[in-house]
Amino acid sequence: MDEPLRVAPELVIPAEELRWRFDPSGGPGGQHANKTATRVELAFDVATSPAVPETRRALLLEQLGPRLVAGVLIVTVNESRSQWRNRQMARRRLAAILQEALRPRRRRRPTRPSAAARLRRLAAKQHRAEAKRRRQPPQPEED
Fold first, then answer.
1. Which pTM does this prediction carry?
2. Among 65, 84, 81, which Cα is nearest to 73's?
3. Domains within the chain, CATH numbers bracketed
4. pLDDT tens figures, 108-137
5. Taking the CB of residue 138, how many other CB atoms lie within 10 A of it?
6. Spatial CB neighbours of 27, under 8 Å, sequence gap ≥ 6
7. What is the pLDDT of residues 47-96, one digit of tens each?
8. Distance of CA 83 to CAs 89, 93, 96, 101, 112, Å?
């Protein structure tokens, strides 16, 4: 567990920068759940980590903004009765979250509807208007 976390070729997080916290899991489980700390919380300080290149830091902070608490990304795992398995899952989840945030995004190229599409839209509007007009009772003619 004390090996560095490889997220991407340019981002390897040293084990010293990963902060672990362990708590007893909630819910059923009897004596085992009451006396063992299997819930795992893994924290990584994205904002101040020397392992994150400056070029990537801004991207990570922007992409992970809502998930960060004071610049720190926290992953909590409570799925297994084994602390070791929960630690493995937390490492994998942290790496996956960071990889997703670093994934290049394509900008949407603005497009316009074609002339034929505009004509079809106007024809459909006229068709709907005509159908609604036919539902109205006939108007009395004025002399």
1. 0.66
2. 65
3. 5-102 (3.30.160.20)
4. 899 999 999 999 999 999 999 999 999 998
5. 5
6. 33
7. 888 888 888 888 888 887 888 888 888 888 888 777 888 888 998 898 89
8. 10, 15, 20, 27, 55
